[in-house]
Design goal:
16 strands; 7% helix; single chain; mainly beta; Fumarylacetoacetate hydrolase, domain 2; 36% strand; 2 helices; 2 domains
Amino acid sequence: MRLARLRVDGSSLPDGALWARADGAAWVPVEDPFAAFARGEAPADLAGAAPVEGRFLAPCEPLLVVGIAQNGPEHHSPVQAWLKSPRTVVASGVPVALRRDAGVPAIEGEIAVVIGKDTEGLTAANAHEYVLGVTAVNDVSSPDRAMLDPRNFEGKGGEGYTPLGPWIDTEADIDEVPMTVRIDGVERVSTGTWDLPASIRECLEYVTRWLRLGPGDVIMTGAPRSNFSVEPGAFVEIEVAGMVLATQTH
C-alpha cells in the first residue's frame, strides 16, 4: 500500500491534512495508519469518503530523525548513529535553500524507514514487524563543517535539509530496497540495501538498543555510494522502491 499525507482544500482536519492510500492514480482517504498498525491491520477507508486531490506533505511528522553514520561500501566501522532535527523535514518538491556559509553542500540519497509502533522488544530478526514502511530521503548536508562540527549539528542543520517522501510504501521488503539518484536528469548511481555494510535490520536493532522510537519516527539508513556535491540550482531526484523524491535547490 502507498500511504501519503495530503493537504486538501476544504478539509476539516488541522492544516487541511489527511491520510490517503493510492488507488491507481487516485488517492482515497483512510484512517490514521499508525492506529491501524497498532491493531495489526491495514488502515481502513474513511466511510463515505470520495477520492481526493491535494498537495503532498511530508509523509509523516517524526519526533525523532535518526541518521546512520558511515553506512556505505567505503566504510567498515561499527554501526553508529546521530540525530537530525525533525524541523528540517520538508515534503517532496519543496525548494531547499543551500547554505552559502558552510562550504560545498552535498546531497545524500538514502532509504528511510518509518517506524509504525513503539519499538520495545525490537530485534534484528523481528525488525520488520515494527516498520510501517519505507520512503525516500535526501539528507542534505554541509560536509565541510565536519572538521569543526563532529556532532553534525551545523553540517546537518540547514532549513529544509531533510526532504522526505513523497509517500510511504508499506509493502517494501526492508531487506531488498532499490535506490537511484539522478541530478539534473542524469543518473549518478543505482544502488540499494545490498550496498549497505550494516543492514536495515542491524541499524534498527542498534538504534533501539539505546533509544526507544515510536510511531512516525524516521531512520535514515545510510548513503550507499549516493553522496554527491551539488551547486545551487541542482534538481535532485531520489527514487526508492519506485517513488521519486524531488528536491530543487537554490
